[in-house]
Amino acid sequence: MRLNRFDPSSINVRGGGGGFPGGAGGGIGCGSLVIALVAALVFGVDPASMLGGMQGGTGQSPVTQGDGSQQSVEQLCTSNAYATESCNALQSLDQTWAPAFRQAGIEFRQPTLVFYTGGANSGCGGASASMGPFYCPADEGIYIDTSFYDQMARQLGAGGDFARYYVMAHEYGHHIQHLTGVANQIRSIQSQNPRAANQLQVRMELQADCYAGVWAGKNRNLIEPGDFEEGMTAASAIGDDALTGGRVSAENFTHGTSAQRAEALRAGMQSADDSVCDRYMQG
Questions:
Q1: Residue 120 and residue 124: Cα distance in Å, rounded?
Q2: Residues in a beta bridge with 143
Q3: Distance between CA atoms of 45 and 178, rounded to whole angstroms?
Q4: Which ranges does the record mark as transmembrane (predicted)?
Q5: pLDDT at 179 > cutoff 90
Q6: Are β-strands 134-136 and 141-144 bridged in parallel, bridged antiparallel, or unpaired?
Q7: Contacts (Cβ under 8 Å, ≥6 apart) of 108
């Protein structure tokens, strides 16, 4: 996907502690069981349910690294190729979704992309790289240890730039759900009806997949040959049934099947219409 280079003055980016953003070819030193857990949780796990509660924080200012220095947005975004891709995607996502919110008369706020290595403190509590990329509604931050992308390619066979953009766009989808109030509504219903919690979480994940597709569809002039296939491969690779080899029943799914995730991404891409994604919250 041919995204424009980021403008450091137009995006919110900061470091999240634990060192500098991980580089291509790096790893996080996890065993295979932890890597499997990463795969099972990636693309939208709600950290509010697993990180020590919801805490305050704006996530807007730069953070001091271990050596006492501060990194600029430019430095953070050019620390490695994956970081640059992530910043390019963030800018495109901001530019794509802001007009949609204005048209709908809903306040739009840019999320903050937080690069970290190994571990970080988020507005939702302590975070570990073993969680994979995640969105924290408390500080409106998208947290990424970029070394995950190497693991995604090796362990799941989901490589290519569009597969990585899909990660960003999916997490951004959770930001959209946060801004529209859908996320709070679902959490409220889940607390009232715990038996339906997993089913509702699946709906959230599929809608975020659909939103990722809408972003790509609205920028179809930037799509390159092979991008669609990379997206379908990534979506299929992280279905609950694929990740567990069918060992998890439909009642225990939290993200949806491979077929469901691929279909949600496809629906968004083909329509380029975010209203199509409302289907996942209906019924």
A1: 11
A2: 114, 134
A3: 14
A4: 20-45
A5: yes
A6: antiparallel
A7: 97, 98, 101, 102, 179
pTM recorded for the entire structure: 0.80
Determine the 3-state secondary structure of 125 from DSSP.
strand
Burial of 155 (0-12, 13-18, 19+ CB in 10 A): middle
Alpha helices in the chain (DSSP H): 32-41, 73-77, 81-104, 148-156, 161-180, 182-192, 197-218, 227-237, 240-244, 258-271
Phi, psi of 13 (to 5 degrees): -140, 140
Percent of the residues in the chain that have a pLDDT greater than 90, as a whole number? 41
Name residue 244's amino acid: T
Instruction: Name the DSSP class of 106.
Output: -
**Is the pLDDT assigned to residue 173 strictly greater than 60?**
yes
Q: How far apart are CA 204 and CA 185, in angstroms?
A: 11
pLDDT at position 71 over 70: yes
56-70, pLDDT tens digit by residue? 333 333 333 333 348
Under 8 Å between Cβ of 29 and 90: no
- A 10 A CB-CB count for 51 gives 22
CA–CA distance, 17 with 13 (Å, rounded to integer): 13
